[in-house]
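Q: I'm writing a short explainer about NAD(P)-binding domain-containing protein for a general audience and would like to include a description of its predicted shape. Could you first generate the structure from this sequence?
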Amino acid sequence: MFIAGATGYTGREVVRECVARGLETVAHVRPDSSRLDHWRKHFGAVGARVDTTAWRLDEIGATLARLQPSQVHALLGTTRKRGSGSGSGSAVVDTYEAVDYGLSIMLLEAALACGSNPRFVYLSALGADGRAVNAYMGVRKRVEAAIRGSGLPYLVARPGFITGDDRDETRAAERIASVVGDGLLGLLGALGAKRTQARYSSLTGAQLGAAIVELACEAREHAVLAETEQLRACVS
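A: Of course. Here's the predicted structure. Afterward I'll give you a sentence or two in plain language.
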């Protein structure tokens, strides 16, 4: 298993779940990460290997060709603040176009060429199949289209809000929206709208990570698309 985006909120849980299943797991960390030593220790303690291949197609391609993974996870994304172009000190410019689209497509191309025909696992978002209302949704819609056309087996996960008290990033607006939204959805559920509640209520990183690994490992279909309701069913 090759996990790109391993240091993210969901990525950490995916790594942990893969290792718990006894799967050989490689957690990718940017070589210029200011917390590289921290992540080496963190993933080492979990039982995963750390890879620091630079984000260049030839190098990522060579790494996947050497590892021959059965799954390649693209759990890449930047925050709204960084997505607007604010720098993080990384050699990769933190914009939605560069990270959420550019690196995901680079990883897809490397997976296609590596020779092991891995299942490509992509963390998208609920609503990515509709009209692109902003840059965040727009890049996910484009990445999904590229995955469908790649010929690789795939899993596309489309959760709604991903939240939890253990999240490192400060996303106050998202946290508030998820709390308020879950409250309203709970009321709707009590009034009988169970399907609406299941479709739109939030997931924690642990729930989402467990669901992604479950679906990616157990799927027999070539193409798997899972939205919040299907993801939650895996961990209920």
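A: For your explainer, you could say: The chain is about 50% helix and 10% strand.
Q: Perfect, that's easy to follow.
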